[in-house]
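Q: What structure does this chain adopt?
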Amino acid sequence: MSSNSNYSFFQSVEKSFDKASKFTNWDLGILEQIKACNSVYQMRFPVKMDNGKIEVIEAYRVQHSQHKSPCKGGIRFSDEVNQDEVMALASLMTYKCAIVNVPFGGGKGGIKINPRNYSTYELEKITRRYTAELVKKNFIGPGIDVPAPDYGTGPREMAWIVDTYASLKPGEIDAAGCVTGKPVTQGGVRGRTEATGLGVFFGIREVCNMEDVMKKLGLTTGVQGKSVVVQGLGNVGYHSAKFFREAGAKIVALAEFEGAIYCAEGLNEDEVFQHRKKTGSILNFPGAQNLAKNSDALELECDILIPAALENVINGENAPRIKAKIIGEAANGPCTPEADEVFAQKGILCVPDMYLNAGGVTVSYFEWLKNLSHVRYGRMEKRFTENLNTRILGQIEELTNKRVEDKERAFIMHGPEEQDLVHSGLEETMISATREIMQIWKDNPSIPDMRTAAYVSAINKVATSYLELGIFP
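A:
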């Protein structure tokens, strides 16, 4: 979302916020409070490296809003980490959680290192020391601030964090809730891996099921038969492609940094993934044609375009050449404000990142609830549901003298596992958030695009929270 060079990332988030706040009736003071970052913690700490040298590490944790507690947001390990970026990402987390009705304030953390340059042991020392610094200043805890993975971090780092936190807070029964995205054995939740990609699919599917919206775009309702282009075959791109294909859409092109491939009959994301693993590139995939540049994929004729890689890939320069009817922002900030203006003129619907890729934080919320309740989802009801369904099925078969097919029988009798419940909670979250945003847009036709409507939704919810808390006497 870092737009043109004269805006910092945080300023461009503020710009989108200001654009949306004109469509609300809130007092200027409340809007200023929502925009501001409440606390910024910048730290430096020494870590002894494997070669015996001491390195001073620069790191951050920003709490953007405490209108709901705890704050929530990932920790990234990257050379590019700076205070402005962490502040911008923390504020986006506030709005993202508000839009999808996840009761957290926004937070974000970052450590300014390239994880590739460090051994596992060095990364562990850095992560544990960072956690200890956060504990010292009360910047982490199940009721205070709950980090999660982001660029350069994953379940391994989250396990180190929860272990460090628990050792510094002996006897804290809810210690596991101090961080999410943990391995399942350490209190993580099943269904976390595919959550963001699945959320992208649920959000766009709901848009595609809205008759009036599809009519305006000149498309039929539903996902089936739609042509889809996915840029990025990482976790989010891979799972987005998978769920669209399974729902009957056609993945006509896939792009990665080494290039792009096109096949009008449709591609299978897993076959392409395996081909890339074997050859080191998605190019020369059997039955597909190579495209000259990876960015060419963005400009193909298609119904749905999903940029799931980097920020700013669609900007004022290439936006006029985009032919997709719907753009689903699976990555963070793939389209610049200039691109938004072009889409509005061309009648392209851009489904904004700040709510579309909220699958991760939604499932993080389910993980946090699981940690606080100390029981796995489905454990209490799975067997009861199975027994009840078996009984009902038996009665129906007895009364009708007909037997249900084995495949249907298994489906009806199946009691929910943790993953089923997590997926169903995510589906409900994405559907209701999509409907809320679209309703705001419908009620106020002067709102230029869906992104602005999403911001309006976030501003209204956060401002209402502040007023109800009585923060402004």
